[in-house]
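User: Is it possible to get a 3D structure for a protein together with its bound compound? The compound here is 4-nitrophenyl phosphate. I've pasted both below.
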Amino acid sequence: MNNSSKIKVLFVCLGNICRSPLAEGVFQSVLKSYNLEDAFVIDSAGTSNYHVGDLADDRARKVAKQNGIILNHRARQFISQDFTNFDYILVMDHLNYDAVLSISKDANDQQKVFLFRSFDETNIDDYNVPDPYYGGDDDFIEVMEIVSRASHGFIKFLEQDAKISIA
Ligand code: 4NP
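Assistant: Yes, that's possible. Here is the predicted structure of the complex:
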């Protein structure tokens, strides 16, 4: 399958070292479990340039590894070209949402942007994946659980929106 027919998904947070690389890794493992990896291009980015080139935070890598997921991503900043390169831009919180929308060109760009937590069935209030950077291991475990639920919810959404079938 060449890339033009693949579904392209970009996960976005602030630093691209905690939430979005975890979301990318977890979503990839969910795709793998459905044998759908080849149908997708996935990546992650940060709205800031604070950690460009860095591997994911040690705590994110640790919780991922405990779940059988190796994070090799190097942080990069979100750029306007990402609106062209991706079909779905999944942001971790409202601050990321505003930052991404602030560099959108038009309605076509804007309709690609979703709060990732809107696909988490247990979300009850604000649709934010909480920023764990100033937290502890427990906060990273919570992020792991949220992005796992949201990944499954997003796959279900894609069954309708992108006509994929999950066996
Ligand atoms: P992330 O977490 O947006 O989930 O990658 C953060 C990482 C770094 C910083 C803030 C949040 N920072 O301020 O450096």
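The helical segments are 19-33, 58-66, 82-85, 94-101, 107-110, 137-161. Residues 13-19, 50, 131, 133 surround 4-nitrophenyl phosphate (CB under 6 Å).
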